[in-house]
Amino acid sequence: ARSGYEHFDKDGNNLYVIAQFFPRMAVYSDVEGWQNHQFWGSGEFALPFGNYEVNITVPADHILDGTGVLQNRKEVFSKKMMDRYEQATKSFDKPIVIVTQEEATEAEKGFSEKKKTWKLKADNVRDFAFATSRKFVYDMMAVDINGKKVMAVSMYPKEGNPLWGDYSTKVVASTLKSYSKYTFDYPYHKAISVHSKNQGMEYPMICWNYGRPNEDGTYSDGVKYGMMSVIIHEVGHNFFPMIVNSDERQWAWMDEGINTFMQYLAEQDFGAAHPEAIGKLDKYPSRRGPAANIVRYMSGDQNFITPIMANPEYVTQLGNNAYGKPATALNILRETVMGHELFDKAFSTYARRWEFKHPTPDDFFRTMEDASAVDLDWFWRGWFFSTDYVDISLKGVKKLYVTSTPTKKAKDFARERGIDLSKNPDLVYTISEEDEDFDPKMKSQNFMQSATTLQEYIASNKDRIINTDISNPKYLYEVTFAKPGGLVMPLIVEYTYADGTKEEVRYPAQIWAKSNSEVTKVLVTDKEITNVQIDPKLETADIDVTNNSWPKNETESKFDKFKSQIKN
Ligand SMILES: [Zn+2]
Q1: Which of 99, 154, 222, 505 is 20 to 30 Å from the Cα of 355, by its Cα?
Q2: Could you tell me the distance, in angstroms and rounded to a whole number, from the CA of residue 263 to the centre of ligand 1?
Q3: 75 is in which domain, residue-wise?
């Protein structure tokens, strides 16, 4: 649901979260013309910006807050509430309770016959929503957004405590700081998190969030992190799509995917800033964002996978399609393809360039490229327009030796082409241990022991040889990588040497430009290579890691173990 109310049997009160109750204008965009697709349930809203003046009359013992600046605070707040509110505007480290749980519990019994009118005024917002109840506990704190004061606000029934009093407003404050850091300074004067039992839904300046403790006030980690994550997500929607106003009816990923990516960064920031909130964990347990978490979806049945670039009504697995996969794609772009500096510059340029405007997907793709000077066409094509997955494998590692004696392969090659090798005495040839004319004696030698011409060349051209990292080249390897998956990705390889040292080499995605299925790298080393591992930190969402290592990792999968047990 996106609005509604909850009835509390025990005290007979309702908690209202109200939105979508008035007709609104369709968007006319310069690119698409009128957006007049009907609402079918998944594709959310395409909305123009507008100014609102809303007066809402409710029972006098209700608390109310919503989109916009409250025009008559002194009329609707008690003296006590006004004093606490003044304190809250100066409290940057913790929330100040405006209506306490005791006061809210007392108000639950009142059922006042009197009325009060709350007056709200909002400029340049794409929607309007409000929440009201006599059950509301109400707290606030001030947040410093680059010198501008914004209020982080929470409203929740006593049934949400102690969880809500402990965390909601702090999560709101941290979210506003994180998003402002990566996009633009939050332009509104407040952001409200309302506890509504089963909803996670966003509106300008206000959102509804789930996360209900048990009746005795206890709660699981699942409930706690679910509540924190949904607050970060829904408050984050103020930026995407409430301000960077994409067309939700046509492109769910432009707000949900981009926002879920930002949610991941904000979750990590929150965990780092509030270690007391994540207990024994060393970082916030984000569900979406890390590459490995999308593997199950991307390796699944292709009948139920749709490209990200699809209308939300025609998508299967909307959560993975419009939230998880685009969030992961952007995270991989930031961590592995572009790096933080370039990505962050380009991403904030996109947000600032399209603040209070209507961007299309092309505007996002284009800005990410032109603000970073990185060609990402290959990335958008694979991740956003196809259902391909990443699978890069290690096909083989060959130890090579160089010899001045023509090998069998070379002789065959020369004969077929009528070349006389004896007329080219300076030629050298590579040979591997698998070749039939390989002389096992070479195994114990430096790889170019049998190539006197090469040794002489290197000796007399020392200053012209560019790669001087290796002062004493001893080994020559040919490493072959294959790409059974359709997606192009940087090739991240960790080489382990006989002395136990490791070296990570990152070949850019362009390595696949001229050869889509297989590439070979030749390496000269001073130490023997004992192990090669592709994507050692699981950065690329590679769906099959059993083909990522040399020597092949022989550990049985759980399934294989199960099968062999059955056979026995
Ligand atoms: Zn959302």
Answers
A1: 154
A2: 10
A3: 9-251+266-273
| Higher per-residue pLDDT: 250 or 566 | 250
Answer yes or no: do 222 and 297 share one domain.
no
List Cβ neighbours of 413 (8 Å cut-off, separation of 6 or more): 419
Domain presence at residue 284: no
Give residue 134 CA to ligand 1 midpoint distance, Å: 28
User: In the predicted model, what is the mean pLDDT of residues 501-518?
Assistant: 95
pLDDT tens by residue, 234-279: 999 999 999 999 999 999 999 999 999 999 999 999 999 999 999 9
Q: How far is Cα 212 from Cα 235, in angstroms, rounded to an integer?
A: 18
Same domain, 72 and 196: yes
Amino acid occupying residue 312: P
Neighbours of ion ligand 1 (CB under 5 A): 256
Q: What is the complex's ipTM, to 2 decimals?
A: 0.95
Task: Check whether residue 83 and residue 109 sit in a common domain.
Answer: yes
Q: Give me ligand 1 centre to Cα 232, in Å.
A: 10
Q: 233 C-alpha to center of ligand 1: Å?
A: 6
Q: Judge if 414 and 374 occupy the same domain.
A: no
Strand order through the sheet with 518-525:
429-432, 393-403, 475-482, 518-525
235 CA distance to ligand 1 centroid (A)? 9
Per-residue pLDDT tens over the stretch 487-508 = 999 999 999 999 999 999 999 9
The alpha carbon of 415 and the centre of ligand 1 are apart by a number of angstroms equal to 68
* Count of domains for the chain: 3
Please choose, from the candidates 176, 193, 81, 95, the residue with its C-alpha nearest in 3D space to the C-alpha of residue 140: 95
pLDDT band, residue 565 (cuts 50/70/90): low
Same domain, 538 and 467: yes
pLDDT at residue number 554? 61
Size of the chain in residues: 568
472 secondary structure, DSSP code: S
Ligand 1 geometric centre to CA of 540 (Å): 25
